[in-house]
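Two entries, shown back to back:
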Amino acid sequence: QERFAKTIFRATRGNTFTHFQPISEPLVNATTRATVHKSVFVVYFQGGVSSNMMERVQRICLAFGANMYEWPESRADIDTRARAVDEMISDKS
């Protein structure tokens, strides 16, 4: 985690802010069935989706094997995603 943050910081010359939040419960790896402790992180930086900074961050994430997800651009996008997740959860129950 610290190595990842340092790599992003150095590659972007200090123009990013990375925030980590550990997941409190250990997760089960789907392939090995071993329990692993994971963290969720977000990298903040200036620039758009097609910026040079975004490409650097993506390359580093791929090198570290991190899963990447799109960040919602507006409150409406957040609400739409939350409703979709709630529906998926209720369908599985």
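entry 2 starts here
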Amino acid sequence: TPIKAPTDIPTFSCASDERNFTFSITTDYYSNETEFFLYDDSFMIGSWDFASSERFEEYIFDYCLPIGRNYTLELTDTFGDGICCDAGYGTYYFAADDTVLFDS
């Protein structure tokens, strides 16, 4: 379950053989078109369909993921226009242990 920001984000720690990965997304005007999927080498680890989510809201997802695996984050927009620009400036970032790996 995501945490709506801004709120006090609960602190937690991962096991010694895991890293904390954070995916944050701010939805655009058409949040109902957006969803994401997070996969490791073999399985879907997490997903979220923003069909009933608020417009222009930030949602934060935290995962403790094992070190040494490959991960894929897939962000989709059913209309195909993405989460930026004509319908508001949606944004996202993906971080490992507070280091941003990529963002919009």
